[in-house]
Design goal:
2 copies of one chain form a homodimer.
Chain A (H helix, E strand, L loop, with lengths): L4 E6 L3 H12 L1 H8 L3 E7 L15 E3 L2 H6 L5 E4 L6 H12 L3 E4 L2 H18 L3 E2 L10 H7 L6 E7 L2 H13 L3 H11 L7 H4 L2 H15 L8 E3 L7 H10 L1 E11 L5 E11 L11 E8 L3 E8 L3 H17 L16 H5 L7 E11 L4 H11 L4 E5 L8 E8 L2 E2 H12 L9 E5 L3
Parallel strand pairs in A: 1-2, 1-4, 2-3, 4-5, 5-6, 8-10, 10-17
Antiparallel strand pairs in A: 7-9, 7-11, 9-10, 11-12, 13-15, 13-16, 13-17, 14-15
Chain lengths: 434, 434
């Protein structure tokens, strides 16, 4: 006889192994909190022989995760394989088609196929839960989707990728340059051998698309997210940021413009040292939501790692056991904001303040040319720094602007980049004054 | 014909009026998120004539809130009257007895009668929800009880009273003394005419008892909370804290000691300037939970005020509309930790580091006497500061200790307080190094 909620775990990497450990170790507590026993029935992974530090012998082994997803003895499929397509997607679709609830940590899958999967879950009257997909152990989906359900959210922003935050924090405290710190992060296991997914902002963009869908009630639309990573941030920029009273963070920002769609951006940004998010260092994540009744709510915690991610998976399992049925993106799929709204069609260009760094030949007249180019585009300068002289050599010149139209600023930079005295392409970083 | 979830609002102070406003203003959004319309049916308050800035004419008026609680047309009673006993308690008990769900912001009621009310709710198979009772708009109950359900929580701590945090922040930034800043807080409406409830730590103790019950799965036990307020914090202490690298905060702290119950304390504490909680200033609240899988999760936001509190009430209403049934304290009442565990019977005395301030006559030998008294109780000094001289006059002497037994430290202070050269009762403040 079956008693309790039967889980099938597809994918036994560090997170999968931690989920197995958590469910075994906390069994009696989970049973009380879930209102019924929570039992692992089946597990699946590519390599059966690998030592994962947990005893898998009590569980039925599935060589094929899709067979696990279809097995009639399983109530909930926990997908921890990863990837936007391929087997992870097949596992989730198969599980829903067979009337099972799904828990997943897969932000890429949700960012690309969230609407289709939410539609399938709704048709099957099953739960598609993904607390672990955004900000690791921080219960940000639950806190924002349910805990702030009475609010219209105007804006969210946050540090959504621990690898980038670690690299930027290390660059600042040690003064070292990007490549060197990246190598260290790879040695420490904080960055993958192929780090592009993290450092080019793709992982943060997936998370932002999912989080924006949850708080604004729209379908995730990864194509609507403007993405820029941290490869071009130099030790010089970090140093100038410090001098100007800012920290550089890779941020995800999503903003609702009334009737003009949702602006979604991932890029490095300078935030005032005094802002709460500036103090979030290393592998930690932080997410801020601003609602019309609640004002700002900030959540901080570990955004990755086996234990925190397993914690988020377990929270979803307990919800399912209790029968708490909340639509994946907060409202039924037919009530999701329309594609136009979500994709930001017709939204205005971004306005904001900017930090601009130029590498120029140290000779008279350079600043006058730069200032003229900015003036011609109506970009108003706030401050200019040129520390250190090297007559005839190359020196950095740093400017900050008042709030300005991004497109105009880029036009000015195009002109500036063409000046004979400017020897590298101009660099700019958004300044966000939260 | 009735459609949707019918609310009765008992109590129309600033929070009650904000709930009425929220439900009216966000009606279509709430209906989508709740899966059904959310409708105010009846309202009740003492004074019908008062202008509350919201139109009450669409709602049935109940002069008697207990009649509202018993009315068959109402599904959910929202109790916003306040107070541990009296009419608020009668309203909640009546509502549950008549098979209605209850949403309340009443921490005093829950801290004193939480177990009885949770038992009644369980017998009636109804929801007793209280997100608004702790930390205002921050969804701390949901985030910890549900979002961290996979964890054994080892400790929680937080800034739970915005009035005290405002006063302590103002004292630090302006250098003024307690009484003066309290008067300002009263003028600004941040403190009541009778401020004892806030500044003596009682409000924070109610919230801590409720939050501890939720995270540790025990009955709230206000009698188990050690409480000390901020009246005795002087401008001198604030200044010395600054010099020593600390901020003074009124904290609520609850800690699980394996097999030895739960330690629950509310008192002013010095926290390192570098700790995240030190940066939470003014009327903001912050709560940190530490779980075995998730590590630390921190939530920050507005801990009081009409809008944030209404936001929390609305979240509970949406949960009820969706039928999300979570026991008030996370597990069924028969599974709550036993009274002995919860009351901390047999728990060890507190150990920690301390700041000690003495007002002494500035004459030779004083420090030697003080040091001897500490040595006799095995209290180890970490630092001593005596800035400013006033030969023959009275000067402050400040000490910090290493981790020590609180009882031993108090015995030493008793001796020190009896010294002829010590002219005021010694003051001490816990140092907490989170």
């Amino acid at each position: 006889m079956r008693t309790g909620l039967q889980l099938g775990i597809a994918g036994l990497g560090t997170v999968g192994a931690a989920v197995v450990k958590l469910v075994a170790q906390q069994a009696s507590m989970l049973a009380q909190r879930a209102g019924q026993p929570v039992v692992i029935t089946g597990v699946s992974a590519r390599d059966r022989g690998r030592d994962r530090g947990v005893d898998l012998s009590p569980y039925r082994w599935f060589q094929d995760p899709v067979a696990l997803a279809a097995d009639p003895r399983i109530d909930v499929v926990v997908e921890l394989i990863g990837g936007a397509n391929g087997v992870a997607r097949t596992v989730v679709e198969t599980a829903l088609r067979h009337g099972k609830h799904v828990v997943t940590a897969n932000k890429a899958l949700l960012a690309h196929h969230g609407l289709a999967l939410a539609t399938q879950a709704q048709q099957q009257q099953r739960i598609l839960a993904f607390e672990a997909a955004v900000a690791g152990g921080i219960p940000v989906i639950k806190a924002f989707r349910e805990g702030l359900a009475g609010n219209r959210i105007r804006e969210i922003h946050g540090i959504l990728n621990g690898t980038c935050n670690f690299i930027l924090s290390e660059m600042r405290t040690t003064g070292r340059d990007f490549a060197e710190v990246l190598a260290e992060a790879q040695q420490l296991g904080y960055a993958e051998a192929d780090p592009g997914f993290d450092i080019d902002g793709i992982d943060a963009a997936h998370k932002l698309a999912v989080l924006a869908a949850v708080v604004f009630g729209c379908a995730p639309d990864i194509g609507a997210v403007t993405v820029e990573g941290i490869r071009h941030i130099s030790a010089v920029d970090i140093r100038y940021a410090d001098q100007l009273g800012y920290r550089i963070k890779l941020l995800g920002i999503a903003r609702q413009h009334d009737g003009r769609g949702i602006e979604q951006r991932v890029h490095p940004a300078m935030v005032p040292v005094s802002s709460p998010i500036a103090a979030v260092e290393g592998v930690f994540n932080a997410v801020v939501a601003e609602g019309d009744f609640v004002d700002k709510v900030t959540l901080v915690g570990r955004g990755a790692g086996a234990g925190p991610t397993a914690s988020a998976v377990a929270a979803d399992i307990v919800d399912i056991a209790r029968g708490c049925f909340v639509p994946p993106f907060g409202v039924r799929v037919e009530d999701l904001a329309s594609g136009d709204d979500a994709s930001g069609a017709g939204r205005p260009g971004h306005r904001g303040a900017f930090y601009i760094r130029l590498m120029v030949r140290d000779q008279p007249g350079v600043i006058a040319d730069v200032a003229a180019a900015l003036r011609d585009q109506n970009v108003s300068m706030e401050a200019m720094l040129q520390r250190g002289r090297s007559p005839g050599g190359v020196v950095p010149v740093v400017l900050t602007t008042h709030e300005t139209d991004e497109a105009a600023m880029k036009r000015a930079l195009h002109v500036i980049g063409g000046l004979e005295t400017v020897v590298e392409p101009p660099r700019f970083i958004n300044i966000e004054k939260f």
